[in-house]
Amino acid sequence: MAAGTDPVIAELADWAAALEPDDADREVASTALVDTVAVTLAAAGDPVVELTKDLPEPLRWAAVGHVLDFDDVHLPSTSHISVVCVSATLAAGGGARAYLAGAGVMARLGTALGWSHYTSGWHATCTAGAPAAAVAAGVSLGLDADGLRRAMALAVPAAGGVQRAFGTSGKCLQVGFATEAGVRAASLAAAGASADPAALDQWFELVGGRTEPDLSGPALPQKPAVKLHPCCYAMQRPISAVRTLPADGLDPASVERIVVTTPEAGMQPLIHHFPRTGLEAKFSMEYAVATALLDGFPGPADFTDTAAARPAVRRLLDRTEVRTTSGGGDDLMAGETGILLELADGTRAETALDLPRGHPGRPATDAELAAKVASCVGEERAGEIAGLTWSAAPGVLRAAFPGR
Question: Origin, by domain of life (predicted)?
Fold first, then answer.
């Protein structure tokens, strides 16, 4: 892709500026709004709230919304689309169309960056997220295609982020940095700042982009996967797999050996094999199995420092062996994950699963989505949040997280 031909910038900006969502698109946007606000409110007691109290709203909202790792994920782009694009849209006063424009750009840009970009260690939520946040905010501010091109180019300096941050505050904060930079870039573009659209093309090549974005299909190609457990998406499948085992008579204390067999692609973000903190536990295959065995349906309380340090957890971690298989595809959900338990009495329990509940191929039910919202905000507020509108959402976040 030759620098200066700007196929990425020009086509994505033109697509976003011309977007006219249909009812199905708007339904996707509504689900994203409710889910993102719910998981953001659920993190009200997290230390990152205090850390970000004096920082701009888009940074704060995105960082708090991502810290539990409970927000949705777009699998083809391996990125957390909604926490970036909902936060940017709300901070700039936009609605469903602005979210969909930003999310559509992020999905297409992240997918074009490809799996090799992710396996190189980049955090695609940040690399694809900064230009996408610029689009979401830019559409909210009424920018035309030329303005969106300039906004995306101005967001390039913040279009980075690395996986080594996983398991630390750095992960959610770098998502916040990317989101705020996109909103800032859109505001500067709206004020008349100039930028060379070819900057994004050069950046795209430098971070390993190889194919041009596909502009076909609905606003958001493939719906985001909704998480039912507050941890890395690569852990949703092993947790769901363990939960298919018969619970009756399966005492975790009787488990002598655990063998997990999974495609190596699914282990890419799971970098903590003996997690010491709740944040590290969110990126651990071994902890996924342990918490599912011990806690049944893992929730926020099962990903704290105290929960990760439990003797029963450490015992199971010591007895877990992870075997990776090659092939099967290049994405987090390639192939299937198998779980084998060997018990003290010599018996074995075994299961395997390809798609967890919440995956677009196995969507969460309305009841499961409602239960997630209630678990995040409490039964008394669940109805309010489930019916949230784009115009009301900023007030809800400002009331929960008052800042400067």
Answer: Bacteria
Q: Are residues 297 and 201 in the same domain?
A: no
In this prediction the pTM is: 0.93
Query: Which residue type, as a one-letter code, is found at position 71?
Result: D
Q: Are residues 270 and 214 in the same domain?
A: no
Residue 249: which CATH number?
Answer: 3.30.1330.120
CATH number assigned to the domain comprising residue 110: 1.10.4100.10
* pLDDT per position as a tens digit, 140-152: 999 999 999 999 9
Pairing of strands 337-343, 255-263: antiparallel
Q: Is position 2 within any domain?
A: no
CA distances from 373 to 34, 70, 253, 384, 390 (A): 8, 11, 32, 10, 17
On whether both 250 and 141 belong to a single domain, the answer is no
Residues 328 and 280 in one domain: yes
Nearest Cα to Cα of residue 37 among 19, 62, 57: 62
**Residue 70 placed within a domain:** yes
Q: Which H or E run includes 321?
A: strand 320-325
Instruction: Give DSSP secondary structure letters for 239-281.
Output: HHHHHTS--TT--GGGEEEEEEEEEGGGGTT---SS--SHHHH
Token pair belonging to 211: 């194919």
Distance (Å) of CA 47 to CA 187, 299, 304? 29, 18, 12
Q: Which value, to the nearest 10 degrees, does the dihedral of the CA atoms of residues 230, 231, 237, 243 take?
A: -50
Kindly state whether residues 206 and 294 are assigned to the same domain. no
Question: Residue 320 sits in which domain range?
Answer: 233-353
Give the phi and the psi of residue 311 in degrees, each rounded to 5.
Answer: -55, -40
* Inter-axis angle of helices 96-119 and 81-91, nearest 10: 140
Q: Are residue 20 and residue 127 in the same domain, yes or no? A: yes
User: String of b and e for 79-116 (b: at least 16 CB within 10 Å)?
Assistant: bbbbbbbbbbbbbbebbbbbbbbbbbbbbbbbbbbbbe
Count how many Cα atoms sit within 13 Å of the Cα of residue 9 in the half-sphere of its side chain. Answer: 29
Same domain, 279 and 385: no
Strand boundaries in 36-137, DSSP class E:
none
Q: Could you identify the residue written with the tokens 């339904």? A: 27
pLDDT tens digits along 179-221: 999 999 999 999 999 999 999 889 999 999 878 899 999 999 9
Task: With a cut of 60, say whether residue 3 has pLDDT above it.
Answer: no
Q: Contact at 8 Å (CB) between 86 and 129?
A: no
